[in-house]
Amino acid sequence: MPDDKTVRKPNRYAAIIENIFFSHYTSGAREFQFAREEIVEVAAELKIALPKNLGDLIYSFRYRYDLPQRILETAEEGLEWIIEGSGQALYRFRLAKLSRIVPNEHLITIKVPDATPEIIAAYALTDEQALLAKVRYNRLIDIFLGVTAYSLQNHLRTNLKGIGQLEIDEVYVGLDRHGRQFVVPVQAKGGSDKHGVVQTHQDIALCKAKFPDLVCRAVSAQFMSDDRIAMFELAVQDGEVKVMEEKHYRLVPAYEIKSEDLALYNLRAE
Q: Which residue has the higher pLDDT, 161 or 242?
């Protein structure tokens, strides 16, 4: 995760990633590898300071910023360059189908009684932490997926063969009334963060490797305007990330949930 706000200017990172890209790219190429050490070498060559966490540069272009225009212009129509893990301290640029997952503003918002402890709301340090806490304390995974779920671990970091190091914001395990058991990797997106096709692929790959007997249901949560939380269930189909389900929630005091709200929810449940 990013850890040094003083060097997060995208123009610095853009200069480094652009240099690395064109040192490997040839016309018609659809994928190629590069090593983490190249980030250090190029930064030194360009006299650019780096954060202690070198992964911040990769993270930024996966989830926050668009790649430099010169790189974007090399992609075929309908495709985009993504950066994947390719092994220990290795990455891969790969052309993939253009994927943009954004909340549907036309969905209704479901009001949920806010069970977030006030002290947690007061001291959460980042959008991501605040979002994960609200999802956890209000049992939004249970409500959204219709299962009983329990937080197993947050910020799970591990290594996976062929991918390298990866991190999942939070992992839940759960079960339904039939006894089926699930593993739920959760992405938390706040601010300008984007839903990442790479992260969804990695989350699902990790669940298959570490929890082979459990059904994987990948979830992404995102803060919206007006204190709303968008919840997505994501799946991979033909190499693309698809939305299987989307709901919007607003955490409110119980007295703000009116009879007309309940009537609407009852109608939807029929």
A: 242
